Amino acid sequence: MIKSKIAVIQGDITQQQVDAIVNAANNSLLGGGGVDGAIHRAAGSKLLAECRKLQGCATGEAKITKGYNLPAQWVIHTVGPVWQGGKHGEDELLAQCYRNSLALADKYEISSIAFPGISTGIYSFPIQRAAKIAVTEVKKFLESDTKVEQVILVAFSETAYNAYVAAIQEIVCE
Ligand code: AR6
Hints:
- By secondary structure, the chain is α/β, with parallel strands linked by helices.
- It has helices at 34-43, 45-52, 90-107, 127-143, 158-171; strands at 6-10, 20-25, 62-66, 74-79, 112-115, 150-155.
- Strand 5, helix 4 (127-143) and strand 6 form a beta-alpha-beta unit.
- The protein starts with 5 loop residues before the first strand and ends with a helix.
- The site of ligand AR6 has 25 residues, from strand 2 and helix 1.
């Protein structure tokens, strides 16, 4: 049951036909490289204009904007932790990114949402460890009372794709 609500795909998150995509942003919310840059390019300059009004975002928190030129109606911006070896609260902060993004999705009655591998690029969080945290938090959330129907974990590389598939096999029962 839960398993059918979680999908893994390899591809570009900006192309996803979902209600909301999640952005792996930085504390300024004013754009950057990686998936953040790709989302801002695809959404157009109105996204940056709306982000300027949000006055940044703390690590582990999430804020929502419209999606503008994206297929997705909403963008949920969250800020993952910078990997510092794993003993500086990185796991918990990454878990908070997923929890807070999903809570916002619920609040906005979003039924489908796609996540990139938050922190697993420029912020260097190891993908296998991040994938387990992502799957654990998504599973917990889908087991709660929510209207979210579909969560897509978007892998950019084959390595990331394999990490998500392995994490789902390990963590989510049939
Ligand atoms: N679609 C899906 N996934 C992508 C895409 C895409 N178009 N592009 C990259 N990825 P990163 P972070 C993957 O570096 O580690 C920005 O400058 C990528 O392979 O985008 O959280 C922000 O402004 C990786 O697995 O985000 C921050 O300063 C994952 O997305 C900083 O980077 C996240 O990689 C945040 O670093």
